[in-house]
Fold this protein.
Amino acid sequence: MKRFVLCCVAETSIKESFLKKINDLFASIGATVEKTIDLHEEKFKAIDIVISLSELKDEEKLKFDLMDLSNHYQIDTAFIPLDDSRTNRRLIVFDMDSTLIQHEVIDEMAAAFGIGEKVKLITERAMNGELNFNEALIERVSLLKGFPRSEMELIMSRLKLTPGARKLIEEVKKKGYKTAIISGGFKYFAEKFKTQLGIDYAFANDLEWDGNVLSGKVLGKIINAQEKAHILEELAKKEGLTLEQVVAVGDGANDLLMLSKAGLGIAFHAKEKVKRLARHQMSHGPMTSILYFLGIPGNHFE
């Protein structure tokens, strides 16, 4: 028999009608519900449902059935094998733009430079996987030629963290996790958030300056989907970890390869295409909900 846990997380409460639908779904695939464990201090806000079954025949169908229930009831779920790996994760990596923070920084820069709509359209198409990431980045950065260095700090001062991000990082660090930003955005901002949040590593694209204005060029190798996945693998090696011990969190098409490499890859409040292609998705709660996916109990809602 194989054993799995379905972690369910809701900021308000997990309704009985949701639990009945889950039980019916498990019965339909021949699974036996062994027990339900409360992870939150108040009952039925975060729970583990432990199941056993002889064979999981159609994992893809189960994923989409759970996604439908998750969206209908506004409850985040993760279906995870019940083994030691869940509580043995030791590295968590974050995309930055629209994941760790609530903004696409390049769009904020473009808006300040008076070319907001033009750049935003390219960004949206790139994040949805409609455009080659490298070409889209080069094109957008070229449009920022002449952007003044003095504006960078002003942009930084306006950027807001995603709800729950700071507490999530604080909590995983207490558990001995290493943390990293792996971003297709810009190094200036990634380094600022690395310092602000006490993150161990930050990787992002470097912009070339011509005196006190942007030259319109990207320096060095572009951090695209393939490079993000490569950095994740290299970080795991450096820390002496298996990929199963890595958690990756991202929202865009260029995060999918990174999410697939990690033992637990989470599409966080992601684009629809990304949610459907990623193994796990979280679309309703704050970032601290991830702590329950990691098997860390407590009151993690702010």
About this structure: The first helix runs from residue 16 to 28.
